[in-house]
Amino acid sequence: MIGRFFRKFYLHIVIWTILLLLPFITYLYQPDKIADFKVYSALSHLVNIVFLATHFYLHCYVVAPTYFFGRRKIFVLLIAIGFATYVALNYCIVYFNPDGELAHLTKENILFVRLVIGPGIIYSLCMITSSMIFLYDEQARQKELNKQIALEKTTAELTMLKLQISPHFLFNTLNNIRWLIRKQSPDSEDTIVKLSEMLRYILYEVDGPKVELFKEIDHMRNFIALQTLRLPIPGNVALDIEDKVKNRMIPPLLFIHFVENAFKYGVDSKTAPQIQFQFQETQGGIIFISRNRILQHTEPRPNEGIGLTNVRRRLQLLYPNRHDLSIRKTDVGDFEVTLKLMTHED
């Protein structure tokens, strides 16, 4: 941003310098005319350049931003006043010219061209260029503002989605603890400790947009441990992680929904559960796999699609065109979720 400003600043300096020196370029090719050099003409040209430059920047950074979009009549009026002032300036230059330029122009009947037509063309070009620069800068500013609005909207949506996930998770976990207490299980105290660790993670570790994957895995271990305590029939619950992926940065609470679903649909009172979670490294990212045996459930499950909808929405916001979510039923009757995240741009 600063570099672009200085490039623009130097470009303006170069352009105004060229306009200032333009009348004197002929002296490079016709040095004999230097003897005809007139100080008054050089000073009048300098006054013209200073006047045009002053009005150029006043128009670009004061008049146009203030009046262009909402108060067009004042905008046009100010341009007309500027033009009238420029005509008056040129008249004063002609009038006070010691070489009698006024009398000469009157005699040749070109006074109107010298004082109105010529200044009108020059002043119009100056104002048009100034307006174009203003509109270009305004368009760039509006684009930047729209990007900022979109970013804030995305941040707000992600925060809302996180808040939707956390109470849902807490509700399920408290139900598990209630079930253990009713059963008078000796593991109740350990369960409360694990819940405390999980709540600490949700409240204090997930404020930022990313966390280390190993923290998310520890959170998942606590959840799996709590769910394993309430299994009606012992089974096989495994969490396999490749060491290379543990330090990857990922959005928090992105996988917990699939872990919840694996226990929700992979556990019943008649069959030993077979549940497996995996984290694998892939080129440019990581792969998360959740696999469980599909078992029958008789109890109703209202609003069970909200969690998956939230996860899909977060993936669209966080990894647009950089994720692949596959949910399918395998040939052997298992329910398998495969989530591939391209984290190489993180």
From TrEMBL:
Molecular function per GO: phosphorelay sensor kinase activity
Name used for this protein in its record: Signal transduction histidine kinase internal region domain-containing protein
Transmembrane intervals: none
A Pfam family this chain is assigned to: His_kinase
GO CC aspect terms: membrane
Sequence ranges assigned to domain Signal transduction histidine kinase internal region in this UniProt record: 156-231
Source species: Sphingobacterium siyangense
